[in-house]
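Much of our argument rests on the idea that a fold can be written as discrete symbols. The amino acid sequence and the backbone structure tokens for this protein are reproduced below:

___
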Amino acid sequence: MKSKILNSNGKFLLLCLVGMLMAVQGFAQAITVNGIVKDKTGEPVIGANVIVKGTTNGTITDFDGVFTLQANKEDVIVISFIGYQPQELPAAEQMNVILQDDTQLLEDVVVIGYGTAKKNDLTGSVTAIKPDEMNRGLVTNAQDMMQGKIAGVSVISDGGTPGGGSTIRIRGGSSLNASNNPLIVIDGFAMDDKGVQGLSNPLSMVNPNDIESFTVLKDASATAIYGSRASNGVIIITTKKGSKSGKVKVSYNGNVSLSNVKETLDVMDGNEYREFIAGIYGKDSEQYGKLGSANTDWQDQIYRAAWSTDHNITAAGNIKGAPFRVSIGYTNQNGIIKTSNFERYTGSFSIAPTFFDDHLKINANLKGMIAKNRYADGGVVGAAATFDPTQSIYNNDPDYVTSFGGYFQWTGNNEYNDSSWPLAYNSLAQQNPVATLDFQNNRATSKSLIGNIELDYKFHFMPEFNFHVNAGMDLSTGKQTNDIDPRSASNNYYGRHSFDVIDKSNMLLTSYLQYSKELKNHDINVMGGYEWQHFYREGTSDSWGFYQATNNNTELAGQKYDVKTNEWANESYLVSFFGRANYTLLDRYMLTATVRADGSSKFNKNNRWGTFPSFAFAWRINEEAFAKKYDWMSDWKLRLGWGITGQQEGISEYSYFVSYVENKEHAYYPIIGDGSLSRPNAYNTNLTWEKTTTWNAGMDFGILNGRFTSSIDFYKRQTRDLLQTVNVAAGSNFKNTVLSNVGTLENTGIEFTIGGKVIQTNDFIWDLSYNLTWNKNEITELTTGDQEGYYIATGGISGGTGNTVQAHAVGHPANSFYVYQQVYDEKGMPIENTYVDRNGDGIISDQDRYFYKKPAADVLMGLSSKMIYKNWDFSFTLRASLNNYVFNNVESNNSNIGKAAVYAQSGFFTNYAKPHLEKNFQGIGNYFMSDYFVQNASFLKCDNITLGYSFNNLIGKLGGRVYATVQNVFTITKYKGLDPEVSGGIDNNIYPRPLVSMIGLSLNF
């Protein structure tokens, strides 16, 4: 027993001794690390992160670059700060750390036209961004990632249509009638501007999750290398590629979202409408007796809560030294208007092997897409706001069941000659919007295959030379089919079946030879090349209805009705020679010169070739001796540029010679064959390129080794030989309008961008960026008319017949509103059809209209904020548009509350938005041509708010992020309509932008 006690006491003492020795050893290893962090010039680095590797034990340097940290002697200390290369050093009681500049940050490679360049070597106005995975809302198409993020770039979505496109403008529009869309280049392949049938947005062909970066070329010195298609700027999209590491990485990115209608027009409900009718006609009137007993919210009936989902899986890695990436994606987006839907399948593959010790580099890309669209009739938005709220959705009367499928409709004269079809629709009335949705199946299937292969060979015997070849294709087909039930209002009795099929191809071959040489104080880079591109499109369309089998005329019964067919094809070629020379002296004086000669088959042989040169100069001021003392200034560069670009998009392939089209509709003369005739199209042999000359001056700044960056640009763009369809003298051409070169347009503006890490600590980072654009647009010449008051009308509206409220005229912005000046009463209310006699002739006529405001904003602003605290992130995006105006055609078309409008003579009621009643307009004269309806549409929008949490090693090495986002959060505006963001400036029946709530998950395996 005594022995056991001694043994156990001995073990206890031994354990205590070992513990004390370990404690002594531990205390011996624990040290206090005192240090100072400086840059290579000896200046202290403020706010540098200092952390014990593999732990969360860390601190930051103070204003003198000094830090104190508790660590163990064998620990490794990691010191890092943006703009410098991080260092890992063994812990010591005294540490003096010198951080070296991170040359990778200073020499970030940016994709430009036909090549790449170091960001620090750019001489033109070029903005490169990478999509922010943490700060974005619901992204269906690529343009959604750019909205509000780039100075000088305006992105206005085409409403809330599922899968819809956007209007993209870079530094304002440069054309009146031709295209104002920028050139889109995807992985070196220049897209056309026409999309595919059923999918008008060419950016829908690329899965946003596959995009690595956007490069926006804005001034002519950057864009002129693309010549005749670069007047509206160039957007270069580079997709993600595989990794050089051998390990294959698999990732998943998906989300589920719920969209809800954000706001509807405040119209009268059933009870209010009955009181309204009683006040006009009296309760004993015939009109009041035709009201229904229901209380139907028609807007509520066409909208829905719409669930959508998006899923993407990617695998990237290396196969025997060849980086590869493969991805598949699925999008199913339901619209808030019932029946509308967008479904898309995407797949992509890229591989980039190298051979002969990297002398030969191959980059192959292939992208495929299948999209299915179901379209809702956009007219239901207006119909739901104006349809009689006292009527029920359905009518079970047998006659209504037979003729309208059991839906209520306004009836008219029946001229179908069919005793089995009792009722006919009143073609002047609004259609029951619910029936319109249910009886129309308008859908499209679009397929695209885009691929290219690039070979770059650096000569073994002359490594300064490399030869580059790029061959690509875009093969697309689309079929849109529309089936309208004969019980519908729009095609009552006959129904309508139609389809449109369009096939297109875009083939590209590019080759260029490049010479690069670095000498002691000189860098030289010269490139020259050739490009061939062929565009081909062909289409077929058919449309027909049917006489019902019960038609009293047995010869017509069951036969086709109003058959329309069309077949067509067109093609064009673009052949180009181009070159670029870059020269850098002493690493601070840079010159760039480019030239491109384009030959287009769209022009007469005398105007077929256009030459587009550019020159640019840049000066790295911070490399000068006098600037060295400003060591906090990591970048200070002046840029100057000039160049000419062209425009050929939006022009018909055969506008310069006489072409004929077969006229099969109601124009048969039984003289030869089946009697069909061919009619000539209008033409203009003198058509030539639009040419835009751009002057640009800019300055780039960077401080604290790139922690904060900023740039400012001043530009002027002058477009000559503007293309516009204008009236011509009768008999001078085959039509009374023809496309012509008519004048000159100028855009002048300023762009400003600033961003950086406002706060950077070990646990908290705050990134903030802001951009501002000011642009002034003015027409300076119209050659088609020099008389005083000459203008070209545009901007058609609903209301009256053929009315326009916009015009192009010298001295005014393009698409300016051209209206009458409204007179108001003592209460500030507009007096109907009472306008200012501006020319003082005693009568109100067209000569009293004046130019008042314009749809394009003077100022655009964007603000993006992202805060990261440990594993949490919180971000939001704000966007503002100032001094843009919109013609509220919804209000102007819903303001006539005269007796003949409230209850039409043909027998139907019209509902009204309650705010529109205050004017008490009775439909007198041109009341809708008033400047009262031109309303300030300036706005501040919160595009999205996102909260996310990132995790690592959740299960094994599984990492990822979970997040929640709200999109289209709020809008602050004085505009009286539903949404102030209207492309073109006329608000009429836009598909509403929804409020979107989304949860998402990203996983990295």
User: Anything to note?
Assistant: The chain has a mean pLDDT of 88. The first strand starts at residue 30 and ends at 39. Residues 536 and 571 are 4 Å apart (CA to CA).
